[in-house]
Design a protein that fits this description.
15 helices, 78% helix, globular, transmembrane helix, membrane, cell membrane
């Protein structure tokens, strides 16, 4: 490469970095950028100038999301969380089981490679990209299988962030109904929290608690996956940040002095969530979308739509 060409490449990289950092900083100002808009801005960057730090994307979203969830714990009461957990437990277990079974059958019908199909079903059933990241080393997937599953789930997450609040408002769902519905039917914790936060504070508290309860199912499903695929993969990683979330709730419930700093923790959490969604959007590159292909995306869409409709019907009937 000639010196002139190298200068052009360096200049273009600098421009991409400046654009990325500028918008990322703007996303940290809640009054200017909402979570759905942050996600949309990220997708625009991915499709135009490109993500300058793509190799750090997964780690960054992992840290940001976990820190944000723990921060949200400081805005919740343990008694209400336990009540929500009891309320949503049976629905969560029912739809998780149904999603895994129906996802398996749908993958067979569409003739999708087994591990890719299983990852999409797991991501839909439990907690999106986090579940896929936890299960993939257990069943020893290839990089392409992982990319296809993540691309499918992240694309549907982006849609959910806009669709769910609109449907909730159109059907005049209560805060309780929307919180439980979004926790059951939306894949990633980031999009669940983003959609519920847009709908209302009570929906946010209910959705976060119910969703984290759903995330704990990663552990038994990982052992099931190891058995089904006959693998001796690495040990299952326990999502310890859920424990920190519970500690934050306990502190908020039983230490009165924490209330003086509650708004700081929750503001940090909501800002972190907005930034998380921006970074996730930046990861939805054109290459990733092309790699997905039609069949895996079709499996993800059909599975998600059916679960969303059935869980909505259950929430309307029982609550």
């Amino acid at each position: 490469m000639e010196i002139k060409d190298k200068i052009v490449v360096i200049r273009n990289n600098r421009i991409r970095q400046i654009i990325f950092v500028t918008i990322a900083i703007t996303c940290c100002i809640p009054a200017l950028i909402s979570p759905p808009i942050a996600l949309l801005l990220g997708i625009v960057i991915a499709q135009t100038v490109g993500h300058p730090y793509l190799h750090l994307n997964q780690k960054a979203t992992h840290i940001l999301l976990q820190a944000s969830v723990v921060g949200l714990g400081f805005g919740m009461q343990i008694d209400k969380a336990l009540e929500t957990g009891k309320t949503s437990f049976l629905l969560t277990l029912t739809f998780l089981s149904f999603t895994l079974i129906f996802g398996y059958l749908l993958g067979k019908l569409l003739k999708i490679e087994n591990k890719t199909s299983f990852l999409i079903a797991v991501g839909t059933a439990i907690c999106g990209g986090s579940a896929i990241a936890a299960i993939s080393p257990v069943i020893r997937v290839q990089e392409k299988q992982l990319s296809i599953a993540l691309g499918t789930i992240f694309t549907l997450n982006a849609a959910a962030l806009f669709i769910f609040p609109a449907v909730g408002n159109a059907l005049d769902l209560s805060q309780l109904q929307f919180g439980i519905w979004s926790a059951i039917a939306i894949h990633d914790t980031s999009s669940v929290v983003g959609a519920a936060n847009k709908y209302g504070p009570e929906a946010l508290a209910i959705a976060t608690t119910a969703k984290l309860g759903r995330a704990l199912w990663i552990i038994p499903v990982a052992f099931l996956a190891a058995y089904l695929f006959k693998t001796n993969g690495p040990k299952v990683k326990i999502p310890w940040f859920i424990g920190l979330f519970v500690v934050a709730m306990l502190a908020n419930s039983y230490i009165p002095s924490i209330h003086n700093y509650q708004h700081i923790f929750t503001s940090f959490a909501k800002t972190g969530l907005t930034l998380t969604l921006f970074v996730i959007g930046c990861g939805l590159s054109r290459k990733l979308i092309i790699e997905m292909g039609i069949k895996p995306l079709l499996q993800g869409i059909i599975l998600w739509v059916i679960i969303s409709l059935l869980s909505l019907g259950a929430v309307l009937y029982f609550f």
